[in-house]
Write a structure and sequence with these properties.
Strand order of the largest sheet: 5-6-4-3-7-1-8-13-2-14
Helix content: 40-55%
Strand content: 5-15%
CATH architecture of the largest domain: 3-Layer(aba) Sandwich
CATH topology of the largest domain: Alkaline Phosphatase, subunit A
Shape: globular
Distance between the termini: 42 Å
Radius of gyration: 23 Å
Number of helices: 18
Number of strands: 14
Oligomer: single chain
Structural class: alpha/beta
Length: 443
């Protein structure tokens, strides 16, 4: 009798699923494989853990509206640990995404024993696809570098700039002009690249190989950015898509909101939420492109969380929204002698400073362990007053290799062809493996 019940159950399952048996031309048991993604756009919010996403939502569109990245049919979680470390840095995490292999902190595109690992730029070149790397950090920073070059030490940014010459990357945009002297720029131009050094030059460019370098070092935080000089992350992403979409064989594009991480290292919640909002605009642009194109997979995730962010019961969205400049900029005004601390806070913090606030900042600045001096002291106190907590500064400065990352899992959001492959709890290496699998043509 149980055999009849089993047969009935199978029949009912087939009926409910709409499965009518195998097609004679189908070697997959009647289930047609989902079409591959011709293009993949991977957006990484550096340091953007679940807490950063949540606070970005609260201080941005609001608790009910939600961020664009949250409007997704597929969601997963990503484990972030590195080889030999439960808390990863961006180099090891970026390598995991770019190569599908774990490595040690500080290592770019190489195994722990020093062997080069095939990265996504190399894989795309073999498969006839174009590659673009866009970031708000220096283009030679750990995350973008992992997708195109190999280097045993992430700090060797001048060397990484030279290594891009042989990478075959079509689009490279962000900060880092100081790592591209005239002699190196000449070598790139000889290989067909054009350079854009401000927003207007980027917008006008119609070249198929484009390098945009919009700051000597990292690009400005979104809260400080001059839109007439530096393009937004959304604008850089759109320009990259315009260039890469000319390749009918497809492309891979990395878009990194890199300074989310820097704001978290600096305990600057008011600055961080602006960079999350700017990153989310780039996500919306990528999804809009994917919806028009129909052959593009969009993935949004983070390499790691940062800062031990805590949203307390005293959180004040109004105070976060009122901040008018980064703590980095405020500290620079004070240190340059342009304004005293009280005047800077009065003009830029969004709140009238009282004597206790100034005293608390100066007291914290005097602690030798504070990693970023006055900048960190201003940010920590303003965040605290807005009800946002962070790692203790003295621990962050003296005991943490990554200077403030944390080991929590991060979210993964997916749209488009093969998006369903990016659900569940995944190793960061598995994300890298599945990106390639998503772009592979059926054999």
């Amino acid at each position: 009798m149980w055999r009849h019940m089993l047969a009935l159950a199978v029949a009912l399952t087939a009926l409910l699923c709409g499965c009518n048996g195998a097609d004679e031309n189908d070697d997959n048991g009647g289930v047609k494989p989902e079409k591959p993604a011709r293009n993949v756009i991977l957006l990484i919010g550096d340091g953007m853990g679940v807490g950063q996403v949540t606070l970005g939502r609260l201080a941005g569109p609001g608790v009910h509206e939600g961020l664009g990245l949250e409007k997704t049919p597929y969601v997963g979680l990503v484990k972030t640990y590195a080889t030999g470390a439960l808390v990863t840095d961006s180099a090891a995490a970026g390598t995991a995404f770019a190569t599908g292999r774990k490595t040690t902190n500080g290592t770019i595109g190489m195994s722990p024993d020093g062997n080069d690992l095939e990265n996504l730029a190399e894989w795309c070149r073999k498969n006839g696809k174009s590659v673009g790397l866009v970031t708000t950090t220096t283009v030679t920073h750990a995350t973008p570098a992992c997708f195109a070059v190999h280097c045993s030490e992430r700090k060797r940014e001048s060397e990484i700039a030279e290594l891009y010459l042989g990478s075959g990357v079509e689009v490279l945009m962000g900060g880092g002009l100081r790592y591209f002297p005239d002699s190196l720029q000449k070598q790139f131009r000889n290989r067909g690249y054009s350079f854009a050094l401000d927003r207007q030059e980027m917008m006008k460019s119609r070249e198929p190989h484009l390098i945009g370098l919009f700051s000597p070092s990292h690009m400005d935080f979104e809260i400080d950015r001059d839109p007439t000089v530096q393009p937004s992350l959304e604008e850089m992403a759109l320009k990259a898509l315009q260039v890469l979409d000319e390749d009918k064989d497809g492309f891979f594009l990395l878009v990194e909101g890199g300074r989310i991480d820097h704001a978290c290292h600096g305990h600057d919640a008011g600055t961080m939420v602006r960079d999350v909002a700017a990153f989310d605009l780039a996500v919306r642009a990528a999804v809009a492109f994917a919806e028009r194109d129909g052959n593009t997979l969009v993935l949004v995730t983070a390499d790691h969380a940062c800062g031990g962010l805590a949203i307390t019961e005293k959180v004040s969205v109004e105070r976060l929204r009122a901040q008018k400049a980064s703590a980095e900029k405020m500290a620079r005004f004070v240190n340059d002698g342009k304004q005293d601390l009280a005047a800077v806070l009065r003009e830029w913090s969004g709140a009238e400073p009282d004597e206790d606030t100034v005293k608390q900042i100066r007291g914290l600045e005097d602690i030798s362990a504070v990693p970023y001096g006055l900048q960190n002291a201003i940010a920590h106190v303003l965040s605290e007053r807005a009800g946002v907590g962070w790692h203790p500064l003295h621990i962050q400065a003296t005991h943490l290799v990554t200077k403030g990352h944390d080991g929590a899992d991060v979210s993964l959001y997916a749209w488009g062809p093969r998006a369903g492959d990016f659900t569940g709890v995944l190793e960061n290496t598995e994300v890298g493996v599945r990106i390639r699998r998503a772009m592979e043509k059926p054999r």
